[in-house]
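Hi everyone,

Forwarding the result from last night's run.
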Amino acid sequence: MATLAADAQQEAKRGRGRPATGEAKTATQRVKDLDAALVESGGRILNRLRLSAEATAALANQSERYGSDRATIEAALIELDKRCAQR
């Protein structure tokens, strides 16, 4: 009887959310996997990109439209490529 009461009390104290499985990835592992998938799909990672003051101002203006610097740069490159292909 005492064992049943102790088990019930421990179950009541269980924390909220999903129980730990021990299989969770660290943030570093998740980013590494995402980066590998991006590169595998033909994407590229540009680190330490330096922009002039003029390019920084243009990026800031367009980032409001596209929502992020990355989305702005991608949109600009894709649009430029389309225009060059039409020539």
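The mean pLDDT is 87.

Cheers,
N.
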